[in-house]
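Protocol step 4 of 5: obtain the predicted structure for the target chain.
Materials: sequence only (see below). No template structures provided, no constraints applied. The aim of this step is simply to have a reference model before the mutagenesis design in step 5. Sequence pasted as it appears in the construct record:
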Amino acid sequence: MQLGPAGGVRGRLGTAACLLLASGVAPARAAAPTPTPTQSPTPPKWQFEGSGLLYTEKKRASVIEPTGRITRFLSDGQILSATLGIDAITGASPTGAIPTTAIQTYTTPSGNVQTIPVGTVPTNKFKDARLSLDLGWEKPWGGWLTTTLGTHVSREKDYQSLGASGKLSLSFMHKLSTLTVGGGYNRDGVFPTGGTRAPLSDGTVIVGTGTNRKTVSTVLVGASRVLTRRWMIGVNATRTTERGYLTEPYKVISVVDSLAGDPTGDLLTENRPASRDRRDVLLSSVYHLDTGVLYASDRYYWDDWGIRSNTLDLRYRHELEEHRWIEPHARYYIQTRANFFRYFLLDGEPLPDYVSADSRLGPLQSLTLGGTFGFQVKDRPGEWAIRAEFLVQWGKAHPAEAFGNQVMTNMSPPVGVGSVVVLYTLKF
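Step 4 output (structure tokens):
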């Protein structure tokens, strides 16, 4: 199942397990004899991290994602890592058609006839699985320069991705400042179930059954600075360029009567530009308090599709007794609509070059609340962490364009998403 650039099941929380693997969870402290003054603790050579994600949207998609990472620490400071992930996704995804006060009937991409009850957001059922593998290599050079290389491959029913990335980090001013530059390149393939349908058509015209190409290039520049013994700040700027097949192959847009506002029964396939330039700037701060660490960040994003967004993220890691800790988390996100986003098309009007009713390209907001609890089991090696979060996402309840018998559009009422991630870390 392909997901659009604005996010979705995998785009929003599908990578939560991998994020927790890399979120700075405290290293596990394996049970070991206390060294004598003449002994030095033996540094670990291996680290295993395993996680499991359970994600669910009410009456929509559900995800089960186990992820495992093995890391090898070499004596000269090099680090090798391999991460394997498996996603199993089932449920339903909004088609882009609008809900109304009348029963709607249409044919799905797989050829099945589907009836939509009154006032219900039209959805398309799906079932998919994805397998992914990431390999990484990191090496320090003289204590002031670090290189990082990585590669990625993933495959699912109608999408595959191959990519590589690299990064250089330079430390200076007695390691109080760090400058980072990096980049990545992905060559992806999209091969929709049933073939690629002609854009802005009724979906019966197939223009190809092969693979549609898509490339993604990313460059990054960042800097961080230790201001005091307790406070560190950072700034990252990223530019991503996408070229190729960027249309969601299964999304449609409703055609409505220009007088009554009722759907005519026609559903046209969407069409998006074949290029997209994204930019974002991330400001972050880490402050060490007496009882914990406060993490705060603000990310501003803009692209040439007209979308502007802002993300505020706040975490506080509080250390408890007996190797336990908690980390409350709050995140707020808001975005504007793409310049070709439409809730529907009017019957008889000229067709635009590009149009999409995908709610992820419309005006929306989301609020995430949750937290992580980390602990060690007495007399057992390794560390556990459990993260639970709930996300509420909503759009405009009464868009100015709506009229006639149109009930609601663009994520109204709000969509609720719950997720739970369990992580285990062991160094040996």
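Step 4 remarks: The chain has two helices and 23 strands. The helical segments are 9-14, 16-21.
Proceed to step 5.
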